[in-house]
């Protein structure tokens, strides 16, 4: 959560996009406010993700933050400027839609975290398919400290880390460091800050080398099966795998493996 400063360039894009070799990097661009999730920023990120979803040239997405931190959560000054129930309801519905979109876009989404990721910023990290952080990163769900339990961040957090670790973060509201975030599974790996770009670029590049159809099939299947009981999950996964086997990319990949050559993906 951030009590945002009003000093900023009103003409600057709220989300920056940079595409390279099948990887789209989306950078939250409210550095003066530690990239607090204003209504405008959430809308801009929603639009960017929907555009990326339809872009078949993009095979992986990196979500980053400009300035000294990744994301400080919701913009508390904006929230207090319109303290109506309808406004709050609309804000959290918008945030939920954004988080669901991250899970539903066809490409894997990788969080690249430096500095702080707190409240809804921590929710962003927990929601992304993969997350890598610099050793200076700090994470918290500190709403309990100001009388506002982090209930919506809790949804993503409890699906990313163990139950006891999630409750400790939610009930205490304390910062945890990068090493602890890695230990509990909030991030895949914590690395020295001067290696963060290299590590994320390597992961994103490796993902982008795969069949875009296979990535989309696998991501959708992962989130659909995870809340099923084990018998239903196996039945669903067997159907998905059967359909996947009929795809041209699956035939190409198997033939390439047998022929000891690099596959040429067509995305079908």
Automatic annotation (TrEMBL):
InterPro entries: ClpP/crotonase-like_dom_sf, Enoyl-CoA_hydra/iso, Enoyl-CoA_hydra_C, Mitochondrial_ECH-domain. The keyword Oxidoreductase does not apply. One of its GO terms (biological process) is fatty acid metabolic process. Belongs to the enoyl-CoA hydratase/isomerase family. GO terms for molecular function: hydro-lyase activity. Keywords: Fatty acid metabolism, Lipid metabolism, Lyase, Transit peptide. PANTHER family: ENOYL-COA HYDRATASE DOMAIN-CONTAINING PROTEIN 3, MITOCHONDRIAL (PTHR43602:SF1), PTHR43602. May play a role in fatty acid biosynthesis and insulin sensitivity. This is Enoyl-CoA hydratase domain-containing protein 3, mitochondrial. The keyword Transit peptide applies. Pfam families: ECH_1.
